[in-house]
Amino acid sequence: QVQLVESGGGLVQAGGSLRLSCAASGSIFSIYTMGWYRHFPGRQRELVATITRGGTTYYADSVKGRFAISRDNARNTVYLQMNSLKPEDTADYYCNAEDRVSNRGYWGQGTQVTVSS
What is the C-alpha to C-alpha distance for residues 20 and 79, in angstroms, rounded to an integer? Predict the structure, then answer.
């Protein structure tokens, strides 16, 4: 099993920055893709960014150019650097990890990001 521990959420003014961290532990040898999703009230969870073990990244258009995902494979940790935050970025952010052996995804507990104007 894989456990994901998230940190870094909080309250920030529009235009500010936050960095989210997600540390994976447990049976982590088969984790390939890690990423961040966010959930807006009344909407389904949506993809923010992903990164493979080899460093290939993907970003949603809504965050492209403002957010940056990175990964420290040695520490089994993925980060989401969020710059130029907007009120519309306010959401609960969830870390996800893909396990290639079990073919399942693991989720963190979620961390709230609130951006005030």
Answer: 5
Alpha carbons 59 and 82: distance in angstroms, whole number: 12
111 forms beta bridges with: 93
Summarised one tens digit per residue, pLDDT across range 64-104 is: 999 999 999 888 899 999 999 999 999 999 999 999 888 89
Tell me the residue length of the chain. Answer: 117
Helix (H, G, I), strand (E, B) or coil at 89: helix
The span from the CA of 65 to the CA of 23, in Å, is 24
Query: Which strands make up the sheet holding 67-72, listed edge to edge?
Result: 2-7, 18-26, 77-82, 67-72
